[in-house]
Amino acid sequence: MIIETQSGLGDNLYLRPMLRLLPSHNLTLITPWPQVFFDMDIKFIKPTRLMRTQFDNVNSLSELLWQRYSEPDKKVCYDLTTKSITENYCEQILGYQPNILVNEFDPGINVPNLFSKVNNKPICLIKPNTLRNEWFITSRNPKSEYLQKFVDMYRDQFYIISLANLSEDVEFYEKKLKGCHYYIEEAKSLDQTIHLFKLTSLIVCSVSFWVPLALAMNKRTICLYGGHVPPQRIVDSRISRPNFATLAPDPFCFCYKLKHECNKEISQTEIERIFKEQTHAAIHS
To answer: Would you call 64 helix, strand, or coil by DSSP?
Structure first.
């Protein structure tokens, strides 16, 4: 069977639990992110249409990896107005909804413990709000002031690294965070990004590939929402998430529009509660 995945890194990470449940191992994926599936018995075909980060990843891989192009038997996609990403994928790939889904990802990159702290502080990786001309969406980002609040409150307790993939006129800050200890603003390979995730004690992010990657690697995470798509559509309740905390506006704007002026207000009491709980656990784990 040949399945054409969606192009996003996060979309491919979300597929892992379903592909594990397929009865046959005679499987080929058309995907720009084959590294996500290297631990499975899967062959790969290079996709024909790619955006910037996907194009860069494909070009970084050996041509020997790819099979000759063939038309897919199935193309997966999702409609988040009715079901979660996971529910859509289960329906299309498995034809049923499993009661339990195992969402784990260990790429085998070993990081010595001595690099998990900088200046005797645990590392926090934070995703600043950015915008992309390729897929311009303003409704999904949380308010930047909430991310800035975290930096202001906890920069003395964590070594905070801001990680973005900026490119002139293609991807740029919505608002740059002030006071981070280190800024990474250029493209990192998937292996380098995973390396950073392994180093970190706490992840602070918005909706992006960071969410399924953090879940699959069981990283302690604070995920802040803006509007557009609600938490229950992004993180399926069947996936274990003991270290994952969500902050979302209430009431939530279920608009599913890219440029809508959504309500993005989150209770300050709730923000401070989640920040306190997750930082305490990250420091003392």
So the answer is: helix
Q: 71 is in which domain, residue-wise? A: 2-94
**What tens digit of pLDDT does each residue of 30-61 get?**
999 999 999 899 999 999 888 888 999 999 99
Same domain, 15 and 128: no
Strands (E), 34-181: 42-45, 66-67, 74-75, 117-118, 121-126, 130-132, 159-163, 171-173
Q: What CA–CA distance (Å, rounded) separates 162 from 170?
A: 19
Q: How many domains does the chain have?
A: 2
pLDDT at 113: 55
Is 129 exposed, middle or buried, given 0-12, 13-18 or 19+ CB atoms closer than 10 A? Answer: buried
* Average pLDDT over all residues of the chain: 91
Whether 244 maps to a domain, the answer reads yes
Residues 9, 125: one domain?
Answer: no
pLDDT tens profile 71-91: 999 999 999 988 999 999 999
Residue 63 lies in a domain: yes
Looking at residue 148, its amino acid is Q
The domain that holds 259 is classified in CATH as: 3.40.50.2000
